[in-house]
Amino acid sequence: MIEKFLETIKNKTNIVFFGGAGVSTESGIPDFRSVDGLYNQKYDYPPEEIISHSFFLKNPEYFYNFYRNKLICKGAKPNAAHFKLAELEKAGKLNAVVTQNIDGLHQMAGSKTVYELHGSVHRNYCMECGKFYGLDFIENSTGIPHCSCGGIVKPDVVLYEEMLDDLTVRKAVSAISGADVLIIAGTSLSVYPAAGMVRYFKGSELILINRDSTPIDDQANIVIHGKVGEVFSQIKI
Ligand code: APR
């Protein structure tokens, strides 16, 4: 199957990539639902409750303790998958990366068109005055980070119960629906509306690269159960 994948990448353009936490595990960032994932570790509350809008409002101190320790992965670097995607974009073969990840590794690897469906740890805003703060501000603060105006600074990350950014969704859907090849990688496709966006794909080649099986394996033209960084490192551009 890898040969067929490499052949497709070599011959095709108008490619879009849709990725999840599994794209960053080879950069040392755990995913969510694998056995060693974030959601299978023990906390005082269910992790998906902690990273919800209502919990953030109710218990911002506990939220930030969890967020700094578990969702900001200081020092993480892009891996082969991130770098190859940036090269494919530069070669004019890849139109966009659509990601559920908030780590910013695609941009760090050089990708220009990246639609971050769940936001980014690199963007933080005061809830009162809207002032922008970078990741370093959050990393270098303790407890609940406050703006110079006194307001609480909130990460620009889509928490459970929150809406995705409308413009980002529209751009991602437009890229997916116009693609000839859609590569889906490193995602369990279990969180909506993100996971539902892949149904807008109408092109000729649906490719799945995922360590575990996913709900749409049977719809894909090419399914590779393996590590996306390892598979992408074999691409010759
Ligand atoms: N290569 C390929 N696949 C991998 C790799 C890897 N190196 N590492 C992990 N995987 C696969 C796992 O088998 C799993 O199917 O990536 C998938 C990761 O799935 P999840 O942990 O559910 O992550 P994701 O799909 O991104 O979750 C979506 O859930 O809680 C929310 O906001 C959070 O954006 C996240 C969303």
Can you give a write-up of this model?
This protein is of the alpha/beta class. The protein has 2 domains: 1-29 and 79-118 and 163-237, TPP-binding domain (Rossmann fold); 35-72 and 125-157, SIR2/SIRT2 'Small Domain' (2-Layer Sandwich), CATH 3.30.1600.10. It contains 9 helices and 9 strands. The protein has helices at residues 2-11, 47-50, 53-58, 60-71, 80-90, 105-108, 135-139, 166-177, 228-232, and strands at residues 15-19, 94-99, 114-116, 119-126, 132-133, 153-157, 181-185, 205-209, 222-224. The mean pLDDT is 96. Bound molecules: adenosine-5-diphosphoribose. The site of adenosine-5-diphosphoribose has 23 residues, from helix 9.
CATH superfamily of the largest domain: TPP-binding domain
Indicate how many domains the architecture comprises: 2
CATH architectural group of the largest domain:
3-Layer(aba) Sandwich
Query: Measured on Cα atoms, how large is the radius of gyration?
Result: 18 Å
Q: Which molecules are bound besides the chains?
A: adenosine-5-diphosphoribose
What is the count of helical runs?
9
With strands numbered from the N-terminus, the spatial order across the biggest sheet is 3-2-1-7-8-9
Largest sheet: 6 strands, parallel
